[in-house]
Amino acid sequence: MTAVDPRDATEVPPPAPALAAPPVAGPVEGPTASPEAASSLASPAASPVAAPSPASLSPNPTPPPPTEGVLGRTYRALTLGIISVVSLIAFEASAVNTAMPAVGHALDGIELYAFAFSAYFTASLFAMALSGEWCDRGGPLAPLFTGIATFGAGLVVAGCAPEMWLFVVGRGVQGIGGGLVIVALYVVVSRAYPEALRPSVLAAFSAAWVLPVIVGPLVAGTVTEQLGWRWVFLSIPVLILLPLTVMLPALRKLPPRKGGEGMDRRRIGLALAVAAGAGLLQYAAQRRDWVAVVPAAVGLVLLVPAIVRLLPKGTFRAARGLPSVVLIRGLAAGSLLAAESFIPLMLVTERGLSTTLAGLSLTGGGLTWALGSYTQSRPRLEPYRERIMGIGLLLITVSILAVPLVLFGGVPVWIVAVAWVVAGFGMGLNISSGSVLLLKLSPPEDAGSNSASLQVSDALGNITFVGLSGLLFSAFGGASVDTGGTPDVTNAASGGQPAAFAAVFVAMAAVALVGSWVATRLKPAESGLATVPSGGAKTASVAHPRTPSAPAER
């Protein structure tokens, strides 16, 4: 659902590479990763020639990474299972974006349009922190399958909703499931694959979006127009059976977690406070009267102290290293999703497109997202990862600014599709690299908590900027738009509010531009170790390499 790095010119001599842990052979063939792997996740390619590391002098030196790929015999079942889960989530995301204008019209809930998106991310924010602790203490199997089942239940609630508020509740249930799933998937990647294969696995995340993004808008639009929007939601739970069947055998072969530590209840409580605070702020923003002061104040009291403790120390001042990796995820994901959420509605109400055509305008972005993820994963681009992430956010900025040009009657609507092709490529450059950088800075035993911090930032960015977009949309008269327009209806006849859409896109372009600056601070400080004290996330003491790590995921 990224950047230029004017880094210091002084080079630091490359340290000895820390090699990935080998697969552990079990009684039945399957991918595993030793939980005792070294906490230093420096890139194996940091230096072609290096002095022996201390690990290499130990009685049990770590062997070099395997040459087998992610679709090789050892990893094939697990990789296909991961692709199935991501494809399910991708199809749902594409379908919901396409169907939402019809949902808002049918349930007479255009004033809650933004809530239908932000409710998902508000609920997922809490679920991500819970999943991180759950994975670190008991492994990823239980949270992954619980999340998939909860996700399906939310689809049923949304599809059967007789009123808009109940539809929003269903989206929240989906968010709980999605939050559990996404963090568990990151932990699976960290534990089951050696470091050399992680870029390719994360690239598979992006590849898993390709087919859903192509067929999702077309299928959802056709179903909405021919059968009704409810079937867009009620038909998806059937797909849950596929990933359940494919992933279970492979996940059972992962080594069990050792140790009797319980979950960090403080961290889970902080996530709950953040989710509750964000929800109250969204509610207050929609009311825009004196009564809204009370929920707004309570929301701030809950949100601000909790989020400061939940994310790495220095995140909100863009401290170098892990804090900026976490911050840039929220800026990139939030700005793009907020803009994307209003594109179908704008094309339907302002330019009279059908639901299907409006949804198809986003298809190209999904394809180029995968292309951008593949591009940044190339080994020869490894030394330029931070710069690539910055360039990606600049592409997103320009693309979002190009979208509202179609509010002028003489501008062809295909400009939106072209702009989103560019935005998707920029997002692929950015998001995938951030995921790899985070795993690089995380010891295996803390991968769950740190992955949760990254996803919490993602969700918080989505909540904040979708909520802000909803507020701007309402403030500029967007709540009065008519979602019942038909193709070839002119802007004047459909009662559109072009200023409301323009306000959303200009604001989100500004957010993406800030993200391009944050990308200049992704490399850890020029000290011997990249240790970052954190309020919630945990970081490894990682030797500072000359080159960063490698790529990908949508």
TrEMBL record:
Biased composition (Basic and acidic residues): 1-10
One annotated Gene Ontology cellular component of this protein: plasma membrane
GO molecular function terms listed in the Swiss-Prot or TrEMBL record: transmembrane transporter activity
SUPFAM superfamilies per the UniProt record, alphabetical: MFS general substrate transporter
Domain Major facilitator superfamily (MFS) profile span(s) in chain numbering: 78-527
Low complexity bias spans: 18-59
Annotated spans, Disordered: 1-70, 529-554
Major site of localization recorded for this protein: membrane
UniProt name for this protein: MFS transporter
Organism: Streptomyces chrestomyceticus JCM 4735
